[in-house]
Design brief:
Blueprint: H1 8-31, H2 34-54, H3 63-75, H4 83-100, H5 108-132
């Protein structure tokens, strides 16, 4: 039995969550909360990737599994550019620093890059889903 893809409504809800996190990251950037920018930027990208995987009926219980599946299913197959996975890895690492490492902090330039890259990845995922589903 093959996995059942998520409904268009479910995909839209996941993308809405990605866009919500991206909006929060933008507000945090304006407020100078650079660690929060990196954290929200990662989650925006994570939710967008989750939607892309869900469009094939793929869902995972951990971030590591989700990122690994995205790499395997979409990066290695050439559907998304190779640098997409490096971006996701960096966003994940920056979120780790922002949320858990009290000895380091996220600076303005890192936050700016994280925000720009997350926005680009969310848009790429939305374009991809638009090709796969007619309702998005």
């Amino acid at each position: 039995m093959s996995p059942k893809p998520a409904t268009p409504e479910a995909l839209q809800a996941i993308i809405a969550k990605a866009e919500e996190k991206l909006s929060a990251a933008r507000r945090d950037f304006e407020a100078g909360a650079f660690g929060d920018v990196s954290s929200r930027a990662y989650y925006a990208a994570f939710h967008a990737i989750t939607a892309v995987l869900a469009s094939r009926g793929l869902a995972f219980s951990s971030h590591t599994q989700t990122l690994g599946a995205f790499n395997r299913e979409y990066i290695k197959s050439g559907i998304f550019p190779r640098n997409s996975f490096r971006i996701v890895q960096r966003l994940f690492e920056d979120r780790q620093v922002a949320d858990y490492d009290w000895s380091r902090s996220i600076d303005l330039e890192t936050a700016r890059l994280d925000l720009e890259d997350a926005a680009g990845l969310v848009e790429a995922c939305k374009r991809h889903l638009g090709m796969e589903t007619t309702t998005l």
